[in-house]
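Entry for the shared binder. Reason: the reviewer on the internal report wants the predicted structure included alongside the sequence.
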Amino acid sequence: MEGFAMGFPTPFLDCLILAATAYPSGFGHSLHHTFGGRPGSVTTAYLGVLLLPYVAVAFAIVWMRPGLIAFAPASAGWLAMAVLAAPVALGMELGIHGLRAYRATGRFPRFELPPIWRVRFRPTDRLLVGAIVVGEEVFYRQVWLGVAMASLGWAMPVALAAGSVAYGLNHLAFGGWTVVSKSLCGAVYGLLFLAAGGSLWPAIVAHGLQNVLLFRLAGGRHA
């Protein structure tokens, strides 16, 4: 099997990897819809199915491109920057959705989560959400930026934009404005990843903390 993967040119394999990481959340959602029905709210089973594509594709990447996924350590300074970046990313996301609402109604509404996410998370659910956060950072920061710059030869700004938009499109099921807001957040996480010398930990910390703040702001009873 290893010989099979090694028989293909690296750019070809890398393009396959980018294609496989393009829309994992959509694939997981469709998988659950096919076999478990349309979810009325987020459940442990639904989160588990959402996580499956990340796990499966990550194993395939490790097999095809050993060394592409790595968790290099980060300095305390960059982890502190990640904590500061989380409310910045949250502010950008809320600002985009607030602008959309203002254009439609003439006022800025109180932010609320989509109905499907208005649930009380159990500890297992929190772990699954955290694992999905890690999966997104592996895919859209380390894999997309690593492949785009090292293998395809894209300039850093182009690679950053591509990874950020791909991350935004992974949230297409929530609407076009969410794609815009998530793309901007992805740019923040991508800049952290690059500035920290390719360590994923600052991006993971910022992304995870941003999610926590988002749920808390929408109502602590839901998180």
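Summary line for the report: Residues 76-105 form the longest helix (30 residues).
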